[in-house]
Structure formats: structure tokens, C-alpha cells
Amino acid sequence: MSDTAALVKIEGLHKSYGGVIKVLQGLDIEMKAGDRVVVIGPSGGGKSTLLRVLMGLEKIDQGTITFGGKPYISANGSGKTAIDTKVRRSIGMVFQHYTLFPHLDVIGNLILAPVKVRGESKAAARERAMALLNRFGLAAKANAYPAQLSGGQKQRVAIARALMLDPKLMLFDEVTSALDPELVAEVEQVILQLAQQQMPMVIVTHDMWFAKHIASRVIFCAGGVVVEDGPPEQVLGAPKEERTRDFIERVFHIKH
Question: Where in the cell is it found (predicted)?
Fold first, then answer.
């Protein structure tokens, strides 16, 4: 796939809960292979739901998503969502609250999916896991359990675990919002490291500094639609839409 081809193409995406609470209302987004997309917007604007849909964790009411030019998720309003689970394996996601298995040590958390899903040998998976833990400064914690880790360490382990399946796209949902301020930087540095290695990613965050430093594009979502989409210096520094300006002034206390 060329750098200019769409990695992800979302068209006419609708998602509601119980047919009453409409979260996404005709969302259209196209993402290229080199993009690092930061999604910002008010609570309830559909940001986390968008990530969960992309990960195949939520059904949709209507719309289509292609990934790498292949059909991935689709629904025509009939109540059924079609999803290609093979395509889904190309996507990794890290959640706000770590979701590590408490009964497994760090190395056990990392090797579980490659061994169970891919049939990889434990020895090969352990070797790859230790390489990732070394890279993230966590080798000394390989045999520790999640309860013995700081929040920042847990989140770095969660990122390493997602990378064990060699994803073509990474999704990060407010991964620093549950952390103490002094632990935020260590997690952001790991994600910046991935960005430098050209890993495509979609990030939901309220951290203005992080958004400016990691994003190649910023998308402002409100009311279940894309209100503004552009480079970070434009959307965050000189937004065109009044709704975007109001949000940035209110949340980030930046006047335009």
C-alpha cells in the first residue's frame, strides 16, 4: 500500500444505543498510512465510541469502514453488523484503565495472545516480549504482577502487549487520564517513540501538549460528526470553526 492510499476509510458511520442515544451521526473520516490522528471533542461526542467501533468492539447502525483497501465493518440499518475478524487482528488498542490480567505476571500478559491466537511457541513469544520490555525500560518487571506496578508501568505493559500482535494501526483511548501527573510523561514518551517509527495511530486525549507533539492531524468531533479536521497548528492554533474555538478556549484555556 502506498503512503497516499487510505489505510482507514470511514463513510456514513451511525451508532446509537438503544436506538435512542445517537452517538455517531454520519461520521466520515479518511486516514492515510502515515497519519497520527488525535481526536478531541466534548464528552459524549463519540470519541471513545469511534475507537471501540474501529476495534470491532461495538456494533454500528449504518455505514462502512475499509482497512487497507479491504472491507472491514459494514451495516445497512438492518440491525446486523458485518465484521471481518481477520482484518481486526491488524488493529491494537490500549484502554484508559490498562485491562491487564491480574493473575498473570507481565511476561504472561504479553505472551498470552500470540501463543493462544497465533499458535506461536512460548519460547519465541517470550523472546519478543523481553525485547519489547527492554525497549520500554520494563525488563526488570517481567515477573512482576500488575498489582505490583505503578499506573505508568501498567500502561506501558498494556502498550507492549498490544504490539505483540504486530498491529498495522494502534488506537489509544485517554491512556494518560487515569495517571498521576508525574507518570504521564513516561507513557507519552513510549507513544512518541512509536510515532517516530511511523506507526499509524488514532489517539483520544485531552492533553494539549501531547496532541500538539504527536499529531499529524487533529480531528474535532462534536454531536457525532467531524466539525473540523486539519494539521495541529491549524485546528489547535487557529481553528476555523466557532464550535472548535469555543471548545479549545473552554477546555484548554487558549484564546484565539
Answer: Cell membrane
